[in-house]
Write a structure and sequence with these properties.
This protein has 154 residues and is α+β, with helices and mostly antiparallel strands. The protein has helices at residues 34-40, 52-58, 68-73, 75-89, 113-116, and strands at residues 7-9, 28-31, 63-66.
């Protein structure tokens, strides 16, 4: 019989007697009270309930049972299982998106120099663009010191 790699265990369900972890059962388990799982499965979980590692470090009711190495080797599928649980709990159906993380904004194409400064002439073909004038200094730290007048001693 193949070994199962992981399990999520509800606190009311007990492991079957005579079947310890690793003997045909899961190699690790994640267990917590219902109140903790309710927070974990919210669309936007509260602090310390957003990831398995945050739960493990900051929520004392959360217990990682079994082989820790097996958990580390399979933490990505376990994380994905929790994401799918969030998706289903939020009332969504159908295929789950590849990731529930917010998408980054699409990069905008660079703006043409004409759009940013209409008074600046376009560069002739094969030439370089003229440089924009430097902005005026606004503080005494940015103003270069005035040249010293040559002293006439002598």
């Amino acid at each position: 019989m193949p070994r199962r790699r992981g399990a999520l265990r509800h606190p009311d369900r007990r492991p079957r007697a005579g079947l310890p972890l690793g003997a045909g059962g899961p190699e690790f388990s994640l267990s917590a009270p219902k109140a903790v799982w309710d927070k974990v499965l919210q669309p936007i979980p509260p602090r310390h309930h957003h990831s398995i590692f945050a739960l493990r470090m900051r929520v004392p009711e959360f217990v990682l049972g079994g082989d820790e190495l097996a958990f580390i080797q399979h933490c990505r599928p376990a994380r994905r299982l929790l994401e799918i649980g969030r998706w289903i709990r939020a009332g969504n159906a159908g295929p789950t998106p590849a990731s529930l993380r917010p998408a980054l904004a699409e990069p905008r194409p660079p703006r043409s120099p004409a759009a940013t400064s209409p008074s600046m002439p376009m560069a002739p073909t094969g030439g370089s663009m003229p440089r924009a004038p430097a902005p005026a200094a606004t503080c005494s730290a940015c103003i270069p010191p005035a040249p010293m007048a040559a002293s006439s001693t002598g």
